[in-house]
Amino acid sequence: MNRYAALLRGIMPSNPNMRNDKLRGVFEGLGFDKVATLLSSGNVVFHCEETDEPALEDRIQEALNRELGIPGGTIVRNYEDLRELVDRDPFTGLKHERGSYLTVTFFKAQRPEVTPPASVDELTRVIGYDESARAFLTVIDNSTPKTTDFMAWLDRTYGKDITTRTFLTVQKIVKKLDT
């Protein structure tokens, strides 16, 4: 049995159709095992026999749209890839805290043309693009009321087939998949 995390884009827990119990119901209805949600931001872990991640993404997204009216993006990552990212700790020496918010922006597809900028604004430090995780790694300074332009830059540059999680959330997802 393969272990996966589905990272759903645009989930708002205040929307009754986007609550964890409804999300779990869609995944269970697809026949997945050991379905669980993590936090209230669109993180669903599950087990299934399938190995084709792009096909899983399409199948899950179609079901979310059909059953709950959720049109947003679905990105699937397998446990082994997420475990490898966490074990490698690409943020070595940095602590996730106010002023250094460690983020991972996952891309739906392989993006060999990705060239991360040195900086988009003074609040964002780009660590780099992680090929095996298919993700940008960044450190966001959120210690001021000013907001970073990085997320808007990502959307403008790469479209909607991306989603961002904190490294802390990625670690929690891996821990949930360990059980």
Q: Can you give a write-up of this model?
A:
By secondary structure, this protein is of the alpha+beta class. The protein folds into 2 domains: 2-80, SP0830-like domains (Alpha-Beta Plaits, 2-Layer Sandwich); 83-167. Helix content is 32%, strand content 27%. The protein has helices at 20-29, 53-68, 79-88, 150-158, 167-178, and strands at residues 2-8, 33-38, 43-48, 74-78, 101-107, 124-130, 135-140, 162-166. The strands form 2 sheets. Strands 2-3-1-4 form a 4-stranded antiparallel beta sheet, sandwiched between helices. The protein has a 4-stranded antiparallel beta sheet with strand order 6-7-5-8. Helix 1 crosses helix 2 (53-68) and helix 3 packs across helix 5. The longest helix is centred in the middle third of the chain and has 16 residues, at 53-68. It is globular, with a radius of gyration of 16 Å. The mean pLDDT is 90.
